[in-house]
Design a protein that fits this description.
CATH superfamily of the largest domain: lambda repressor-like DNA-binding domains
Number of helices: 5
Structural class: alpha+beta
CATH topology of the largest domain: 434 Repressor (Amino-terminal Domain)
CATH class of the largest domain: Mainly Alpha
Distance between the termini: 17 Å
Helix content: 25-40%
Number of strands: 5
Largest sheet: 3 strands, antiparallel
CATH architecture of the largest domain: Orthogonal Bundle
Shape: globular
Radius of gyration: 16 Å
């Protein structure tokens, strides 16, 4: 975990806005959009019901629902697709970034 002091962070849908005391702004966007909350809403069910039905911890589904996770395990993705009667394309939407990803 990276600790940065004197940093102000705002979160908008899938975009983090970072600003420092010097006033510099940085944006971090994501090319993969989490649509789990949309699909749960379309099915008119609750996070608790989904978690109970697919035998996954409530916190795991809640974090996906609130878009507070950096990834998803394939077995959970499979269970969500089964329960919500959808495909991974319905749960994760790809939006091309303006520039290609940078290799680290």
């Amino acid at each position: 975990m990276l600790l940065v002091l004197s940093l102000y962070v705002e979160y908008y849908t899938n975009i983090w806005i970072l600003s420092t005391k010097s006033g510099k702004l940085y944006t971090i966007g994501y090319m993969i959009i989490n649509e789990v909350s949309t699909m749960i809403g379309k099915r008119k069910t609750t996070v608790a019901e989904v978690a109970r039905s697919i035998h996954v911890k409530y916190e795991t589904i809640q974090n996906l629902y609130m878009d507070k996770t950096q990834g998803i395990k394939f077995n959970i993705l499979n269970k969500l697709c089964w329960y919500l009667e959808c495909t991974p394309n319905d749960l994760l939407r790809y939006i091309p970034d303006e520039q290609p990803p940078v290799e680290k």
